[in-house]
Amino acid sequence: MIRSLLVANRAEIARRVFRTCRDLGIATVAVHSDADAGAPHAGEADAAVRLPGDAPADTYLRGDLLVEAALAAGADAVHPGYGFLSEHADFARAVRGAGLVWVGPPPEAMEAMASKTRAKEIMRKAGVPLLDPIDPAEVTAGDLPVLVKAAAGGGGRGMRVVRELDALPAELDSARAEAASAFGDGEIFVEPYMEGARHVEVQVLADTHGTVWTLGTRDCSLQRRHQKVIEEAPAPGLDGELRRTLAESAANAAHAIGYEGAGTVEFLVSPAGRAYFLEMNTRLQVEHPVTEEIHGLDLVALQLRIAEGEPLDPEPPAARGHAVEARLYAEDPARDWRPQTGVLHRLEVAGLRVDAGPADGDAIGVHYDPMLAKVIAVAPTRAEAVRRLAHGLERARIHGPVTNRELLVRALRHPEFEAARMDTGFLERHLPELTAAASDDDEAARLAALAAALADAARRPATTTVAGRLGGWRNVPSQPQLRSYRAEPDGTEHEVRYRLTRDGLLAEDFPEVRLLSAEPGRGTAARRGTAARRGTEPTLGAEPKPGAGPRPVTGPGPGADPGQAATPARVVLDVAGVRRTFEVTAYGDRRYVDTPQGCHVFTALPRFPDPTARTEPGSLLAPMPGTVVRVAGVKAGDRVEAGQPLLWLEAMKMEHRVTAPAAGVLTALHATPGHQVEVGALLAVVTAEE
């Protein structure tokens, strides 16, 4: 019997495993880097062990430190989660060698699937259908497009789609470099790239007595940069014969390597309906909740019971209904999926399952994956599940860094997705329309800016009357009240002008709008990050009502006390006879205006902007904090072309190219490999041609 379990991981997966352990009566041990010292997973465990340092290579990727932590805390088992060392056979051996229970497959099974090239050889012998690899030196124009892949990789790292033969050598070198940096193994291979294919996978579960379950299918076709964004179970639109082929192939794969525990066999399904083996993940998947929801299972509990030697039933429970999961990332899809950092003030999604890593008040840094949470909806039918998920995300309170929330909502409501006609190129193909401003957004944004202005005015303490707070009533006409806001992240500026007259509110842009009420919120809440949230620091101000959600906390904002945030103000307007309610929350100079139709984010602009705030033309600034991993073969004085890659930044487990903004001369290069940079740091200067 497992009595105390260490989770060799962090954030969402650690919290997910701890939740099951509490249900089963198993004590828990967390590990944390210095960057995660105040993270929720470290505070939720019964014990926590520090891993000195911030970078994964110094902390969560140090198998020796993880084993030492388990022994020091008195744990008798280790759960690897996913990512980091979860698929490293040597780590599994080290855990077992220390006399601890490994909650995962045998090291030999992990080793067999660790290299994608070796895995394909094993699957071919087991009769599993697959795509034949191509020798990189023998790729011809007739083979295009092809996919370059890292043999030891995962999560989209070291993958490149090549459509032009001349580009292949550079992409091979780039993939090798990224694979070596990410996995310590630069081996790559090339295979045909299947246009219009779907990514379908089968959840397997195997005990130590020879029983193998195949738990239906999952569709994971909606991906960005070969990383999954929306997943669902069961995979829609597959005929019975294809489902049987997928299940039999997955079971054969598990039997071929003597698998035990939870794992996933992934396939590409061609437009013609033929399945090809892609890879096997020898761990629990990020998207496991959709399988849990339709089968009524706790896969983590089953992992633990299998590790304790318990047998599975002869057959798994049948699936019922449909489940859809969306991954909420701190990233900006409209700007090349750029990761975002900052304080997550508030994350609240009503009525749906939410598996989150950070909690309100946590800082989102640069060291780890930018996923904030997984949001899961389940319903009797696919259409209902998709509708519930889109509706829940649209109404969610998400205050903090820019996220992909809007893209998720639009993707879920896209006609192709609603009709289950998606493939792995869906997001790339539809990205412009999924990130473009809607035609009616301008009016909605201007109305939200008006609500923000009225909420800001209502918070003024000069008088207790609404009229006084909104600027006062005057006997003769006067200049209107003026406030300016910049919409985020698109940068559109809105000037709000209004007057209070004997007939009520007069808003210049909205003559049909009447103010019904503007409640400023009852006081402020002093919060100081995760320490206050966990009760280790007193909370000042009004006490929350019983059952109320967490109060918003502050993040850095010009001129704002970093420990203060206003409670939401409530503005109710009559818009051409329709009552509209806005909840406006302020953090420093940021305003989050939540409505039933979505959220608008603004920065309140000062009345007198700083005239010295400017950037020299041609300056390339770091778009995010990160590490310079590679610099192209250029130096100061070289001529460069528009769009030419100059260097690569790594942040949040992803590489980002920094390119020349125009053709000209590289007059300065301030970045070197290994250089840590903050957002806004000057990387290079390109002087454009006349």
**What is the strand tally?**
41
CATH superfamily (homologous) name of the largest domain = ATP-grasp fold, B domain
What is the CATH T-level topology of the largest domain?
D-amino Acid Aminotransferase, Chain A, domain 1
The Rg value, from CA coordinates, equals 27 Å
**Which structural category fits the helices and strands?**
alpha+beta
Give me the number of helical elements.
17
Taking strands numbered 1, 2, ... along the chain, how are they ordered across the largest sheet?
Answer: 13-12-9-10-11-14-21-19
Biggest β-sheet description: 8 strands, antiparallel
Low-confidence runs of at least 5 consecutive residues? 523-564
The percentage of residues in β strands lies in 25-35%
Can you walk through the features of this model?
Residues 120-308 form the ATP-grasp domain. Its cofactor is biotin. It holds the Pfam family Biotin_lipoyl. This is Acety-l/propionyl-CoA carboxylase subunit alpha. The chain has 17 helices and 41 strands. With 690 residues, it is α+β, with helices and mostly antiparallel strands. It folds into 5 domains: 4-103, 3-Layer(aba) Sandwich (Rossmann fold), CATH 3.40.50; 132-192, Dna Ligase, domain 1, CATH 3.30.1490.20; 198-435, 2-Layer Sandwich (D-amino Acid Aminotransferase, Chain A, domain 1); 441-521 and 568-604, Glycoprotein, Type 4 Pilin; 619-688, OB fold (Dihydrolipoamide Acetyltransferase, E2P) (Beta Barrel), CATH 2.40.50.100. The strands form 10 sheets. The protein has an 8-stranded antiparallel sheet, sandwiched between helices. Strands 25-24-23-33-32-31-30-26 form an 8-stranded antiparallel sheet, with helices on one face. It has a 5-stranded parallel sheet with strand order 3-2-1-4-5, sandwiched between helices. The model is unreliable at 523-564 (pLDDT under 50).
